[in-house]
């Protein structure tokens, strides 16, 4: 029987991070430095998820993709192809840089990878917001001029946030996250970020962080996506994001209600953003992210009122051949 897979988090120091994941998720963080990101599910050369518990404990996601790819992703997934999704928790104690990810049409030319991502705001402090998308009439040339007099922020939409909000950011869209947001980010498997402005901040080493103005301008010029808008939906079940790369559906479950996923349909990721779920002897709590492999059938019962995100649509035959 193909098991549900939970992984050990990979924590990342970030100058804009904090220690909020300890209190919010009830975790013990390493050291005392600011932790901005917890990589929950990752298959990259520089970072690998390791299975936590179960028959495959200690094995890396890359190893499992190579040896059990058909069970994880379906019979047509090439064993050498990395897992296509990266899942992170973000503790945004301070504002992140103003940045952009390269569209697929020019990513390789710029030496990077496209990165479409979705932000689910699990918690937002009063006054928190995100910046996303250039305002009407603003092009790359106008934005470049605004960088010279430090007025670029005024050219980007500012969207106040609250818990439960969701925002899909396509590659090529200028964006930043304000301080005070706790976010679950579900994205393409990419780590290419072009910073264009960092509010005069220095990094953890005391030096200004690298900027990538020319790559950012090229990404803006190649962008074909419209300015994003926040999704606020109170329905019991709601699709929060749907794009070529993935789909995210939120389910609100009352205590005792359940979710069932049949075997041999598609791989899925289940993320708990509120409450607790039980799957046999396994309990999933706030912050947990589990991979539900293609080859397994899984049933969950809400131990208490719960909210979960289900990410799918990333393991089709077409994507396997891409």
TrEMBL record:
Molecular function in Gene Ontology: mannose-6-phosphate isomerase activity; zinc ion binding
Sequence positions that bind Zn(2+): 101, 117, 175
Cofactor(s) it depends on: Zn(2+)
Annotated Gene3D superfamilies: Jelly Rolls
Cofactor note: Binds 1 zinc ion per subunit.
Record key words, sorted: Isomerase, Metal-binding, Zinc
The protein, known as: Mannose-6-phosphate isomerase
Provenance organism: Oleiharenicola lentus
